[in-house]
């Protein structure tokens, strides 16, 4: 006899495999691999000499924000995926089948985490070629990756919900790409706070991307303190609560789509 839990797991695995295969077939993993390399080269090559003159090991400084940008682009893929599922009538078909309500959402989140893991691995391998490393040891490396995956999961949850609520895939890209780029560039992930004009420093210092990058930087160096970690964890928890509510709203709306 198949229990409810076993049925959920079986359906989740089936839909996750479908999602991963579809993502692979549509080139999403190629993008997940290319994006961190493009971002790393785009900032490392022109800025490494300037940062070196300021006494900054730029490869070590830069890689956390490259990883964060990579998982953010993965979230955009999650938004497009959920929007396409809605556009293609997948929601309607699934609602007429004996599929648990949370299975599609959970499968899409798992697929997004797989894409994030591929992108993070690519960023770290390429970063190692540039000189990035984990001087904090294995614990710092594991913490770095888990924190990046947590950020990626929270962003994917928000993007997936927007994909369901938006009119189509193009609208989701417009909603997500600009805020991601603006917050990334106006953070202390690419350059130190001292590089910003005086009026911009409070925002650059206190926004979530800056706290995330600082936490990951200290995890890599093995120097993380509660003073650095606390703001990042508070931001992450707050965003998780807000985006969980958004995901709940989106799932309720999903059931009403024809």
TrEMBL record:
Localisation per UniProt entry: Cell membrane
InterPro entries: ABC2_TM, ABC2_TM_bact-type, ABC_2_transport, T7SS_ABC-Transporter
Protein topology in the membrane: Multi-pass membrane protein
Keyword hit for Transit peptide: no
MF annotations from Gene Ontology: ATP binding
Keywords for the protein's UniProt record, in alphabetical order: Antibiotic resistance, ATP-binding, Cell membrane, Membrane, Nucleotide-binding, Transmembrane, Transmembrane helix
Transmembrane segments: 29-47, 59-79, 99-132, 138-159, 171-191, 232-250
Predominant location category: membrane
Domain ABC transmembrane type-2 as annotated: residue spans: 27-254
The keyword Transmembrane helix belongs to this UniProt entry's keyword annotation: yes
Family in the record: Belongs to the ABC-2 integral membrane protein family.
PANTHER family (alphabetical): DOXORUBICIN RESISTANCE ABC TRANSPORTER PERMEASE PROTEIN DRRB (PTHR43077:SF8), TRANSPORT PERMEASE YVFS-RELATED (PTHR43077)
Protein name (record): Daunorubicin ABC transporter ATP-binding protein DrrA
């Amino acid at each position: 006899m198949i229990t409810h839990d076993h049925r959920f797991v079986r359906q989740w695995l089936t839909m996750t495999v479908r999602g991963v295969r579809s993502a692979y077939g549509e080139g999403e993993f190629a993008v997940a691999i290319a994006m961190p390399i493009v971002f790393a080269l785009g900032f490392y090559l022109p800025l490494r000499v300037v940062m070196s003159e300021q006494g900054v090991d730029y490869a070590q400084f830069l890689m956390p924000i490259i990883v964060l940008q990579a998982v953010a682009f993965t979230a955009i893929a999650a938004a497009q995926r959920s929007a396409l599922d809605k556009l293609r009538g997948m929601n309607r078909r699934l609602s007429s089948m004996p599929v648990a309500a949370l299975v599609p959402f959970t499968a899409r989140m798992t697929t997004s985490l797989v894409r994030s893991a591929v992108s993070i691995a690519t960023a770290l391998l390429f970063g190692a070629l540039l000189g990035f490393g984990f001087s904090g040891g294995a614990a710092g490396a594991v913490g770095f990756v888990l924190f990046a995956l947590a950020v990626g999961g929270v962003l994917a949850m928000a993007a997936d919900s927007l994909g369901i609520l938006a009119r189509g895939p193009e609208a989701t890209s417009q909603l997500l790409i600009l805020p991601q780029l603006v917050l990334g560039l106006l953070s202390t992930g690419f350059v130190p706070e001292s590089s910003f004009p005086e009026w911009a420093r409070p925002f650059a210092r206190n926004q979530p991307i800056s706290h995330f990058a600082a936490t990951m930087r200290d995890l890599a160096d093995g120097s993380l303190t509660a003073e650095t970690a606390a703001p990042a964890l508070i931001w992450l928890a707050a965003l998780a609560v807000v985006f969980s509510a958004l995901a709940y709203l989106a799932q309720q709306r999903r059931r009403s789509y024809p």
